Amino acid sequence: MDTDLYDEFGNYIGPELDSDEDDDELGRETKDLDEMDDDDDDDDVGDHDEDHPGMEVVLHEDKKYYPTAEEVYGPEVETIVQEEDTQPLTEPIIKPVKTKKFTLMEQTLPVTVYEMDFLADLMDNSELIRNVTLCGHLHHGKTCFVDCLIEQTHPEIRKRYDQDLCYTDILFTEQERGVGIKSTPVTVVLPDTKGKSYLFNIMDTPGHVNFSDEVTAGLRISDGVVLFIDAAEGVMLNTERLIKHAVQERLAVTVCINKIDRLILELKLPPTDAYYKLRHIVDEVNGLISMYSTDENLILSPLLGNVCFSSSQYSICFTLGSFAKIYADTFGDINYQEFAKRLWGDIYFNPKTRKFTKKAPTSSSQRSFVEFILEPLYKILAQVVGDVDTSLPRTLDELGIHLTKEELKLNIRPLLRLVCKKFFGEFTGFVDMCVQHIPSPKVGAKPKIEHTYTGGVDSDLGEAMSDCDPDGPLMCHTTKMYSTDDGVQFHAFGRVLSGTIHAGQPVKVLGENYTLEDEEDSQICTVGRLWISVARYHIEVNRVPAGNWVLIEGVDQPIVKTATITEPRGNEEAQIFRPLKFNTTSVIKIAVEPVNPSELPKMLDGLRKVNKSYPSLTTKVEESGEHVILGTGELYLDCVMHDLRKMYSEIDIKVADPVVTFCETVVETSSLKCFAETPNKKPVDMHQNRSSVINPPISFPVIRNVKFKILDAVVAQEPLHRGGGQIIPTARRVVYSAFLMATPRLMEPYYFVEVQAPADCVSAVYTVLARRRGHVTQDAPIPGSPLYTIKAFIPAIDSFGFETDLRTHTQGQAFSLSVFHHWQIVPGDPLDKSIVIRPLEPQPAPHLAREFMIKTRRRKGLSEDVSISKFFDDPMLLELAKQDVVLNYPM
Amino acid sequence: MESTFSSPAEAALQREAGAAGVLTPLADLDRVYELERVAGFVRDLECQRVALQFPDQLLGDAGPVAARLEETTGSKMFILGDTAYGSCCVDVLGAEQAGAQALVHFGPACLSPPARPLPVAFVLGQRSVQLELCAKAFEAQNPDPKTPVVLLSEPACAHALEALATLLRPRYLDLLVSSPALPLPLGSCSPEPEPLERFGRRFPLAPGRCLEEYGAFYVGGSEASTDLDLDPDLSRLLLGWAPGQPFFTCCPDTGQTQDEGVRAGRLRARRHYLVERARDARVVGLLAGTLGVARHREALSHLRNLAQAAGKRSYVLALGRPTPPKLANFPEMDVFVLLACPLGALAPQPSGGFFRPVLAPCELEAACNPAWPPSGLAPYLTHYADLLPGSPFHVPLPPPDSELWDTPDVSLITGELRPPPAWKPSNDPGCLALTLRPQLELAESSPAASFLSSRSWQGLQPRLGQTPATGAVSGRRGIAIAYEDEGGS
């Protein structure tokens, strides 16, 4: 290194280096360069590669770190750089993958006490299958009962702490609300008292009356029902409706009186009173059945074995037979079936003669049911609840129940459950009841087909279905659609009635409008996978033979509500199964609209999906262009809106205030002959009376209870005068004018309300009802309980918020359920123009009809009043004047 | 013969059309009908025969106007009193029959281009506008001077818009004034940049701006118009205007303003319902509603193709102006589509008592073309020409093997599944070459035939074989209003 070239600080002072030729081009650059040289030189010296072309000094502003957008994308691409963030800070730049999940599902197949292969084998033997729907009033313990069955068959599924498992409430919303919304199928293998295994297809249905449509879908594919009745509450509103529905659907009816522990622990009834209470329930059910059924032999009795008793909370379930079996197992040498026949009714045991007699041997002797069943039950419950430390271990020892020290230290409820579980064992009594009284799919097929199939039963196909022939032509009836976890797709759920459905098979899906004459509503689809559904997990199978329930993938697209699935070829005579016939009517209406109009397609897609998901839901667009949803009640529509907003469309939706559907009727006969002339002067006369349906004049879509009588119609001789152009508008005018002359009235739907409340709240219930135009029809105490049942009617339009209102007024002690009951005329004249409707004020009763009419017409965007003159001709008006008809209507 | 037909021939001739007598004081004629301008137009063209077209309600003034014009120009004037379709369209055919070389159109006009070139002058009318009141109303509705607003008006008030804008300009920066899209004088070069033409109006948009950014302030209508039946011109503006933008109407007499957002929403919902009806329809009646507007033949064949592609039967009906009794003669139709100028297509109102709904062409396109953007995203087009190839809004039908045709669809009206179209659109409809048919299948019966067989009354009894055979004789001649053999009775 030449030291002369550097100063004492090591700075270069020698002659200029000739490496940077370019730099000389601009004077400004060289000047800058001098300033920077000091820093650069050290490096340059150290590196010894000054001549390298890449090392030339480039100014900061001239440096190019990245290629320009033009170089990257080419000259024809416009690139825009935005200085400001268009994405809000709250939104992550890399969003986590969002998985939509609305249901609780098992990750893997859980362990079961039976092999899955065994379950699959049983599917081939239709005599060993039972298709059962569990139904009953709200909170009468259906889901809890299924939990017990699940716990008995799935050793690893246990309820946590004191929480109910609710295995069949698979939706998050169901868990949160604590009420079933969808009916859920469960398939398990259960043994009867003799240890014989049966395949049970059980449908757990919602108990809330709003969701009766789910029950209907379940009933259609079942051969029998088990009706759950709360021992303390007895027969309630929905119990009665379900009995009627099951009888109408021609299903075998069995009863399970649930929550018998409540009689003992809560109501603290003496055993004899408990017996009376139970007998009262059985009698009540029999009374209802005889009212709705034409079959005289249809009687329910514990003696027949079609009534069982249970307490699903404490895992108790027995029939007379299974309880007798416990005696037989303990004491041996007893014919338990004969013994069971003597355990119900006015039969007493005489310990001296060791015989059963019809008369009480002593004044203190108890009926056999009390002595042999209730007394022991009371003893077990009482000792566990009251006497854990002293006498319980000895009693348990006597019963042959062995508990560990830890188990004895459990809380009362789990302990009671444990003891009962050990004492009563599995629910073999329930299985016995179903096996004996509910027909197998093979036996039940014939009545089922006769009731639901639109085609003839005598054909080859009808016979294959009646025989439940797995080798026959494929016929499968789907009644429900279950959406997948993420709510994107649907799986169809139904019952195979004949033939065998295979995975991957092409099938023909017949819709509800398919007939042999009009084959349009049918589509060929390919079946995807097939499953047996067990609430939170699905067992995939490759084929499902006749008699079973199946969950089908890949056929959802053409199905709206129900469908018939058959073979694509060779089964041309197949007809469809009837669409579901519901026992409720959808009278509540809400109009929906997306907040952002451009999201309408998303909302329509969502509407189509909720329409699939809810059996009785109706979604449609009205003539005014409003999208309306018709449902059975507030809770129902609330669930629909949840699904629409969260599950299926994820957009903001505006909802109009709920309204009800109205219809129009007349109360009198039109006093004069209404007539009109066709445009070329040919009169049509009509008179009107009180039943036909046409498009009504005032504003509502349906006319009820009206008869139109054609008194006279002079139809022109010449065919030219008789075209539709002459007749239709004229006839319409005549019908409207006749309608308007016969004192038109509105009709509104009425709800039947059942309220349960303690005695001190009854007056508050009356008050709340009266404020909403409701009236009480019955008010009676429930026998053996401190509660009252109040039955009332309330107009549906005034029922919005009734439940909340009622709870507020009774400090949450009253509970109500309401269901559509009938149509009733709205007081007041809808066309009386003298009525002035003041805004934001409750209207007196005679103004209501007018108010409803004006508000509906406003909502539809019609002018407020019906212009009547539009329907009357001049000659008709003259006639009116001649007859001096007093009309307070605007002309 | 009278009894056989709906009304005797004389009745039609004796019927009084429009209001009788002169409506406008003679002194006002010049101002109201802009006779000076019209006379200038006629003189410039130097034509000998000129047709004057009046709507029915202005016919009373036709005589004096014609007389006055003949006097000033010396050309022969013909009054076209009876237009076959809407009076808003230029009746080219009528003018041709009279051998006129030019036409003057009075009253509200749809300004759609006529099918044949003919010099036309439009007299839209001069309605007085209270400028001060309107300006005040405008300021009340638009407190922010930066809001982009377009001034619109009914045709008769168009003359006052510039004046209104001048009042507002100092304060409002982003103000656009629309003008009626009158035909440009022949030979005049179009201004640069060419203004956007929509809704029969011109919008002088600055480059880079679009109409969707603007709110609207419409001068026109009257305070009393609260009923459903909107003026078709206002309906098309409400339907076509961007849904998120405010739309105010202002009465030119009183300056009363009204927010039309609710009405527009209701109107859109109603049209949406009609699209659903069209989707459900099996048989579509295409009503010829114009013969004088450009490209109507093309549009008709386009609509027929559409209906066929979507698996619907279509029939073309020429009925003149649609009325409920006329349309009720065709009960086998599920919906009618009125192919007419933008105003004419929107004219049939829901309260008009039609037995089946009457749709605009755009709604049939939305119903039948699966590639059409879904409702809410699609523009509402009021003129059928926008649907045809060559327009920026044209959406071609997807190819027959496209998946779009197969998507199952649930009707929102009946809640039932709509089957996918039974037959696909063929690629070359005009191909006449013979093709080999692999297998003969049973011909599908037409929906009309199946409808007929379901009717209880199936028309005249044909009495096959019961009528004696006779030789053919020559029939009646002439036009329907008075056949030759009816004589002059």
TrEMBL record, chain A:
GO terms for molecular function: GTP binding; GTPase activity; U5 snRNA binding. The keyword GTP-binding applies. SUPFAM superfamilies: EF-G C-terminal domain-like, P-loop containing nucleoside triphosphate hydrolases, Ribosomal protein S5 domain 2-like, Translation proteins. Residues 127-409 form the Tr-type G domain. The gene is EFTUD2. One of its GO terms (biological process) is mRNA splicing, via spliceosome. This is 116 kDa U5 small nuclear ribonucleoprotein component. It comes from Puma concolor. Required for pre-mRNA splicing as component of the spliceosome, including pre-catalytic, catalytic and post-catalytic spliceosomal complexes. Component of the U5 snRNP and the U4/U6-U5 tri-snRNP complex, a building block of the spliceosome. As a component of the minor spliceosome, involved in the splicing of U12-type introns in pre-mRNAs. CDD domains: eEF2_C_snRNP, EF2_II_snRNP, snRNP_III, Snu114p.
From TrEMBL, chain B:
Pfam families: Diphthamide_syn. Pathway: Protein modification; peptidyl-diphthamide biosynthesis. GO terms for biological process: protein histidyl modification to diphthamide. Keywords: Iron, Iron-sulfur, Metal-binding. InterPro entries: DHP2, DPH1/DPH2, DPH1/DPH2_1, DPH1/DPH2_3. Its cofactor is [4Fe-4S] cluster. One of its GO terms (molecular function) is metal ion binding. Belongs to the DPH1/DPH2 family. DPH2 subfamily. Required for the first step of diphthamide biosynthesis, a post-translational modification of histidine which occurs in elongation factor 2. DPH1 and DPH2 transfer a 3-amino-3-carboxypropyl (ACP) group from S-adenosyl-L-methionine (SAM) to a histidine residue, the reaction is assisted by a reduction system comprising DPH3 and a NADH-dependent reductase. Facilitates the reduction of the catalytic iron-sulfur cluster found in the DPH1 subunit. NCBIfam families: diphth2_R, DPH2. Component of the 2-(3-amino-3-carboxypropyl)histidine synthase complex composed of DPH1, DPH2, DPH3 and a NADH-dependent reductase. Interacts with DPH1. This is 2-(3-amino-3-carboxypropyl)histidine synthase subunit 2. It comes from Puma concolor. The gene is DPH2.
